[in-house]
From TrEMBL:
Subunit structure, as described in the record: Homotetramer.
InterPro entries hit by this protein: Ald_DH/histidinol_DH, Ald_DH_C, Ald_DH_CS_GLU, Ald_DH_N, Aldehyde_DH_dom, ALDH7A1-like
Family: Belongs to the aldehyde dehydrogenase family.
Pfam families: Aldedh
Protein name per its UniProtKB record: aldehyde dehydrogenase (NAD(+))
Phylogenetic lineage: Bacteria, Pseudomonadati, Bacteroidota, Flavobacteriia, Flavobacteriales
PROSITE patterns for the chain: ALDEHYDE_DEHYDR_GLU
Provenance organism: Kaistella pullorum
Keywords: NAD, Oxidoreductase
Active-site positions on this chain: E265
CDD domains given in the database record: ALDH_F7_AASADH (cd07130)
Enzyme class: oxidoreductase
The EC number(s) this enzyme carries: 1.2.1.3
All residue ranges annotated as the Aldehyde dehydrogenase domain in the record: 33-493
Length: 512
């Protein structure tokens, strides 16, 4: 047996046996309860983290408020320079951080490294953007007047992230927030606090080396009470929340109640339509990676395959064959395709969903189940499974964060698109076809209703350059690329009169 270099990795990332889970610049502190982080890969305790008390939250918010006053006056390209240095550090720490993501969260090492690569990529993207935070100029209807618009920093951005992308989602929000002149408070998932501490250590190095104020990038490990404080605090201009639709509904309401801004990244129920004109070799790779990658715990994971009747049996047989070859085991071992679920609660939900599916009439062509024995001591390893279903089943309408794949048959593309759209969620979608008419119909306004619609690619693994997010119960938020930075700034329209008279707009006469 090997320790996969875990002790050295933890040391390199500054993780000790007992850590404080709050950081506002320099030293870490915390006065709340102790949290233990267990690895789903081997069930072992990795280390302990002291969590935040409400008083710790007050310390953090005060630091953030004062840091913002200073940081908003730093020119945007100089803020970009900080992000550039952060990206360089991430390159140095990539191997260690990727390994920690894999060990604490359970995704394969390749995917852990891929997640850190997303962090590096968003940094590069944000550095360029730091010189392009532009608005329009407009022609005024009045003589001697000029109109333009500009974007100003918002203030404090609260980032509430999920266990499944324990580092990348934070970095998308942080990199954009920084170039926009905002300061951030990060409440990571309680299931992956060590990933957060490691990131905070890296960012603290950047802040210290540049003599930047404490409080530009803060982190607070705590339970839902800390999350609720952040959500209801009018000092926090924007809440970027990634998590379940159930929690997101409350977050959205509570932020709206105080007229704050929110970005919501909630559940997905992503489908690939496999048409009679699909390249089936590609379809198999896209579908299998989409369904079993990250053990089905991405919001973009493929949950449904909507398959044309003419290729249904062939796809089904090839899927069964492909699933037979999957290696399930320690994600740090590069021979394995599928790692564990995050914890035993997730295993229970997986089993409950299988049971519900069976009760509703689902026909399992690849059986699920929990793995036991050598290497599976954590109790979190499950078998990826496949069921033939109807799209209307309650369980199929629901997002289960596990490797359960549903197969649905269709006859016409219109029918397939209707099935694809007939779920409450609207994150990611894809079509496999070599036929232009089919692809374009799928992408048209009569096509997919999702925030992401792909052709000849699976549903997961979006690049950071595009806007990431979805419609309906997915929450409507967008993160990372394109012009998403605008969500992180407040917009101001300016009209300037450089004449010696004051004509009113709309031709209104008002003589004194
Ligand atoms: C998520 O699952 O929360 O598109 C984010 C993807 C990744 C991001 C997923 N780039 O699969």
């Amino acid at each position: 047996t090997t320790d996969y270099g875990i002790p050295q990795m933890l040391k390199n990332l500054g993780i000790s046996n007992e850590n404080n889970g709050v950081s506002a610049g320099g030293a870490f502190f915390a006065t709340g309860d102790m949290l233990e982080s267990f690895s789903p890969t081997d069930g072992k305790l990795i280390s302990k983290v002291k969590t935040a008390n409400p008083e710790d939250y007050q310390t953090v918010i005060e630091k953030a408020k004062s840091a913002f006053k200073e940081f908003r006056m730093v020119p945007a390209p100089k803020r970009g320079e900080l992000v550039r240095q952060f990206g360089l550090k991430l390159r140095e720490y990539k191997d260690d951080l990727g390994k920690l993501v894999s060990y604490e969260m359970g995704k394969s090492l390749q995917e852990g490294l891929g997640e850190v690569q997303e962090m590096i990529d968003i940094c590069d993207f944000a550095v360029g953007l730091s010189r392009q935070l532009h608005g329009y100029t407009m022609h005024s209807e009045r003589p001697g007047h000029r109109m333009y618009e500009q974007y100003h920093p918002l203030g404090i951005v609260g980032i509430i992230s999920a266990f499944n992308f324990p580092v990348a989602v934070w970095s998308w929000n942080t990199a954009l927030s920084w170039i926009c002149g905002n300061v951030t408070i990060w409440k990571p998932s309680e299931k992956t606090p060590l990933c957060a501490i490691a990131c905070q250590n890296i960012i603290n190095e950047v802040l210290n080396e540049n003599n930047m104020p404490e409080g530009i990038s803060t982190m607070i490990v705590g339970d839902h009470k800390i999350g609720e404080m952040l959500v209801s605090d009018k000092n926090v201009a924007l809440i970027s929340f990634t998590g379940s639709t159930k929690v997101g509904r409350t977050v959205g309401k509570n932020v709206a109640e105080r007229f704050g801004k929110s970005i919501l990244e909630l559940g997905g129920n992503n489908a690939i339509i496999i048409t009679e004109n699909a390249d089936l070799d590609m379809s198999i790779i896209g579908a299998v990676f989409g369904a079993v990658g990250t053990a089905g715990q991405r919001c973009t994971s493929t949950r449904r395959l909507i398959i044309h009747t003419s290729v249904y049996d062939e796809m089904k047989n090839r899927l069964v064959q492909a699933y037979g070859q999957l290696k399930i085991g320690n994600p740090l071992d590069e021979n394995n395709h599928v790692g564990p679920l995050i914890d035993k609660d997730a295993v229970k939900q997986y089993l409950d969903s299988i049971e519900k599916c069976r009760q509703e009439g689902g026909n399992f062509i690849v059986e699920g189940g929990v793995l036991e024995g050598d290497g599976y001591e954590s109790g979190c390893y499950v078998k990826p499974c496949i069921a033939e279903v109807e799209n209307s089943y309650g369980i199929v309408q629901h997002e289960t964060f596990a490797p359960i794949l549903y197969l649905i048959k269709y006859k016409t593309l219109e029918e397939a698109i209707a099935l694809q759209n007939d779920v409450p969620q609207g994150l990611s979608s894809a079509i496999m076809t070599q036929n232009l008419r089919e692809a374009e119909l799928f992408l048209s306004q009569a096509g997919s209703d999702c925030g992401i619609a792909n052709v000849n690619i699976g549903t997961s693994g979006a690049e950071i350059g595009g806007a990431f997010g979805g419609e309906k119960e997915t929450g409507g938020g967008r993160e990372s690329g394109s012009d998403v930075w605008k969500y992180y700034m407040r917009r101001q329209t300016n009209t300037i009169n450089y004449t010696a008279s004051l004509p009113l707009a709309q031709g209104i006469k008002f003589d004194l």
